[in-house]
Every structure is written in C-alpha cells, then in structure tokens.
Amino acid sequence: MPHKKAQSWFDQHPNRLDRKSQEEAIDLVSFSFNGNPVVGRKGESIAASLIAAGIRNFRQDRVGENRGIYCGMGTCFECLVHIDGSPSQRACLTPVEKDMDIRTQTYAPSVGPRNDQMRPNFHPTVSPPRRTALLIIGAGPGGLASAISAARSGVNVTVVDERTMPGGQYFKQPAAASESSDKSAFDQQSLQGRALIETARNLGVEILGKTTVWNAVENSDGFDLHVS
Ligand code: FES
C-alpha cells in the first residue's frame, strides 16, 4: 500500500492565503470550537481562524438558521459566539487565544458568568481617568488623518479604537504573526495604513487599541476619559 504523504498545516487550511511551509507556521494557537480542536495563528481574530479552518456557521438566529461573519468589522453582530462561557462576543473583533473554548451561540443566550469569572479580556475594568486635549474615536483613515493634523498643530491627541490594531477597515493591518513570517501579507493598502499609523505615533499621538470609552467629561483643558 503506497505511503500517504502527511498533510502540512497549510494543506489542512486551504483558505489561508499564505502557503508557507509548516516549519514556518510560527505562533500557532490551539483552541476549540464546539469541543473540536482548531488551530489559528497568534494575532488574528477568532473569525479569521474559524474561516481558515472551514467553519462558517458561528451562531443561530431565532428561527434556527445559521449565521456567520458578514461585515468583518464589528458592526453587524452576526458573528456572535460564546467564549469561555461569555456570550455575545464578536468573533471578528476578538483575537484568538490559546485554549479558548468557543461555542456556537443560539438565539437569546443566557447572561453568562459574573464579571470576575470571565477571562480577563472580557472583564471590563474601567481604568482611572486619563486626560487629553482632543479625543478621537476610531483609528481608521479619518481618525488617524485628523489626529496627525491636530498633532502637527501642537495639540495633545488620544485616538481610541475597539479593534486590536489601528487602521480601521480600510487600512486594516495584518495579524501580528504575519510580521515575522509573511511579508506578502502587507499589500499596498495596508502599507499605506502602516505609514499613517507610524506618522501619527511619531508625532506623539496616543493610540489606544482594544479600548472602549465609557465616559468622557469635558473640562477647561480637554477631556477626562474613563476607558476599559
Ligand atoms: S462580522 Fe459583523 S460584527 Fe463581526
């Protein structure tokens, strides 16, 4: 009987764009979906890992139909899943982590665990107030360009975004794992975004990722922010 050649990790994940060898598939992250093992790459979203593994049905709506990723940018809420028992988490915005227990969400899920029982990422701890002269919500092209203009005029700027990385949908940055393994992941558009992000940072713009603003109180010299 002919010996069957072992499949590489990328052979098992045909939806991946990069075709690097298994040896170069660094920073792999093992987690489970409905109890079945799945492997993603560090820095990418849960949705990206699931799609790459051929899993498209993330939740069920109230008539039992399957739903999955739609906008891919955190606005449609079609990609909701349970993560470690916490319901209604957006798979497209949540970075995949080792040993996560991801499960399909059905309509009207239970409330889930108490805050202090959640994985730290899902425990919204509001930090002490921080002050800024100009607060920009959203680190997409518009937010970054505005921040750069203001910073060049000497204004102290803070840009807040709920995504892990700045760039928004238009200048979306590849997963961190691609930095070291696959330079082709940086197409012209993401390179333009990277340049914009670097310009903002070099001008001293503070960019807060994975951050939600709960309260912004205006005062005489700017805003006091309460973020988590
Ligand atoms: S796919 Fe739209 S919020 Fe995740």
TrEMBL record:
Gene3D superfamilies on file: 2Fe-2S iron-sulphur cluster binding domain, sarcosine oxidase, alpha subunit, N-terminal domain, FAD/NAD(P)-binding domain
Occurrences of domain FAD/NAD(P)-binding (ranges): 134-214
Annotated GO MF terms: iron-sulfur cluster binding; oxidoreductase activity
Pfam families xref list: Fer2_4, Pyr_redox_2
Keywords: Oxidoreductase
Alphabetized InterPro entries for the sequence: 2Fe-2S-bd_N, 2Fe-2S_ferredoxin-like_sf, FAD/NAD-bd_sf, FAD/NAD-binding_dom, Metab_Enz_Cyan_OpOx_G3PDH
Keyword Oxidoreductase appears in the UniProt entry: yes
PANTHER family attached to this UniProt entry: ANAEROBIC GLYCEROL-3-PHOSPHATE DEHYDROGENASE SUBUNIT B
Name of the protein described by the UniProt record: FAD/NAD(P)-binding domain-containing protein
Organism: marine metagenome
